[in-house]
Task: structure prediction
Amino acid sequence: MLLAGLETTGLYGLRVLGRGTSARMSHVRHVPVSERRARLAVRQALAASAAAADPEAAVRALTVLHATEPATVYLSLWARVPGVTIADIDRALYDDRTLVKQLAMRRTLFVFPRALLPAAWGSASARVAAMLRTRLAKEAVTHGLADDGEAWLDRAMRATLARLEGGEELSATRLREEVPELAGHLELSLDKKYGGRFPVAPRVLAQLAVEAEIVRGHNAGHWRTARPLWTPMSAWLGESPSPLKPREGYAELVRCWLRSFGPGTTEDVQWWLGATKTATVDALADVGAVGVSLDGEAAGWLLPDDLDEVEDPGPWVALLPVLDATVMGWKGRDFYVGRHGPSLFDRNGNAGTTAWVDGRIVGCWVQDDAGTVRVHLLEPVPDQARAALDAEAVQLTAWLDGDRVSTVYSSAAMKEALG
Result:
């Protein structure tokens, strides 16, 4: 079933409903904003009645977790798994290894459920790997590290893998000291405040990681910081599953995304996937996505077995961290952000902390110098909701137990809250 106004171009060439095209056909499922917020609460384990049983279940509910900042993983799980401890999360990441960090969509580091890794390896990660490889090889030549960038990169990667052979876990610093091929620096973006002279070793390690040759193993630092020890992926997982073919991988990622985030528009899916329009449309067709109408005459997609209405789970609140997967799940965010976008996201679209009431972002949260969590509202909320948010802040303060979480993604609202 397709929306009125959708066209087909060949077997898989679905085109989304254009602006201003009517979607009033009675047989087309309409998903209003109220239900989108209910789905968000239930599918992503935010409402109390839908809370996840353990870290693995919470990650599956979200498809993946953002892991650009290590604290995000822990705080995202705290918000969804009642009673979860840091030890519980460490167990899933480092002991059972049911959750694994992998660079994938949009050149972003995520925590994946182990079973979903082959889908990413063959699609989103492979796409990123090709782009990063070309850039690094070119920069190696530009900065005088080699005359042949591709050959240099291959040598550096082989030498690194040889040093890690046997499953040893080593830090980037140790690898730089022991693998001569990792020596050298790149001078990047010297005209920018974030530019400078950087060692090339982390770039080579990132290339090996996005190609699933190595993985971030145990963390040698505090849970709030990233000091990964690198080890072969095969040693970490104890097996070498094969990546899916690109089209199969994209389809599986889209299937999971629709289960977690649907309905979403083609633009939402493409943005999250970091793929081409063709790959996105093919994947939607491959999973049998069904067109639905959204408020504002937009067109969205649901899985064919997920067309039943999701009921409102009742009142709920949440305090979510910087770059939480829910906040970063869609390109079109008006249905949960409203007018607060400029206060909550930086110019690159990175989200700060957020405070939620019944499927809408109403503010943010910060920690004061003593580590106490405080809620900062951007709009008035009912007294009961404010009390519930304050109670969440007390619980989060206790859970953090004096640890202060820093970030490079402080939003305007966070800066305002801190004065």
